[in-house]
Amino acid sequence: MKFNEAVKLYFNRAADQLELTDDMRALLLTPKREVQVQIAVEMDNGDLRTLLGYRVQHDNARGPMKGGLRFHHEVDLDEVRSLASLMTWKTAVVNIPYGGAKGGIAVDVTKLSKRELERITRKFIDEIHEIIGPDTDIPAPDMGTNPEVMAWIMNQHNKYHGFNPGVVTGKPVEHYGIPGRSEATGRGVGILALKTLGRLGHKPQATRVAIQGFGNVGSHAALFLQSAQCKIVAISDVSGGYYRAEGINISEALEHAAKHKSSLAGYTEADHISNEQLLELDVEMLVPAALGGVITKDNAARIRAPLIIEAANAPVLADADDLLAAQGTTILPDILANAGGVTVSYFEWVQNRQYYQWNLDRVRQELDHVLSSAFEEVWELSRRNEISLRTAAFMLGIGRVSRATISAGIT
Ligand code: NAD
Questions:
Q1: Arithmetic mean of pLDDT, 354-371
Q2: Is the pLDDT of residue 411 over 80?
Q3: Ligand 1: distance of its center to the CA of 213 in Å?
Q4: Fewest CB within a 10 Å sphere: which of 176, 230, 289, 297?
Q5: Contact 172 CB / ligand 1 (< 6 Å)
Q6: Is the CB of residue 388 below 6 angstroms from any atom belonging to ligand 1?
Q7: What pTM was computed for the model?
Q8: Element (H, E) at 22
């Protein structure tokens, strides 16, 4: 099943619970605006390249639209559209006053020089500056973009509309960004994983964890969970998996990666396994934090972890989701599990609007509060209605958006 079909399936399961009419479903599923633009740029060697850029603004019933910009050669309108709708439900689940959007450029950033990347980014903003802004649509980093790209976006947008740092989040801390943004998604994964363990009656000390992906999200989740006394027995990245039954020292693994171009390749303190083997380990908790679509109907029966925390977007495909539910696996869904990033992006936007710098303690405290409240609501809804945490999370998000839509008046 394709990603966009899965999103629609999850939407409809929640909409059934909410008894939404077909008319309301059509309204909520249809993006408010989809924009495709031409980005014509001169490359360093003098060649002219024409790229396609997208911004899909899905819904603004609860506030300005919010969502990342993905620069990746596989970006297309279908994918951007589905991701935009997920942002609407995600911001609603954690109850921050935003709608959802997503954008991107179909380009392989690994083949660009920094100057080319900057020219492409600025050209893209030239094309979409009128439809983004601190009160309308606020982009953020995603795959292939980073804080520096966000700084260029702010700078380019401000040339047209005057100084306003709140037009984009995920900026460098020294350039109107917020402390704690880079750790936010992984830390949020850790906070929510502990909450779920608590509700399932498991102690962190008795929890063995396998984490796929050791980038921004996976490494921060690993650090957080280790400091909470979970035993991280396996980690991985694109170079493969690393397993140690007695537990891996995450700080040492991070030091190794820092010295080897962010790679775990050559890490000898653990046994080398494959990424596929990591997913099938005998552990209490599995945290896929790399790619989407890694748990499918083909390997679902071999997944032994009774708890999966979806740190990546859509790591469990829809048909695997049903098989795992049948075998009693608890899945904390992506729209809640990885919402720490957009939550701290929201704090950055608030900080920018207040012209008041938050400190790390405050960011962490408020992140904990927002995610914990959302978790309790999703958990209770799931128990009360005897539905999965995924359907409960979608139900909570979609319910909030539909009520806001009706309150505002549709005529
Ligand atoms: P990242 O680029 O920092 O790290 C990705 C990690 O995955 C790296 O360790 C990389 O080596 C590994 N990886 C890549 N290909 C792999 C493969 N084939 N097998 C195993 N590992 C592989 O990315 P990130 O920011 O940590 O994001 C990870 C996931 O979380 C993505 O799905 C992303 O969409 C999602 N996510 C990220 C954020 C955020 O704030 N960074 C927010 C929400 C969701």
A1: 97
A2: no
A3: 6
A4: 297
A5: no
A6: no
A7: 0.96
A8: helix 22-29
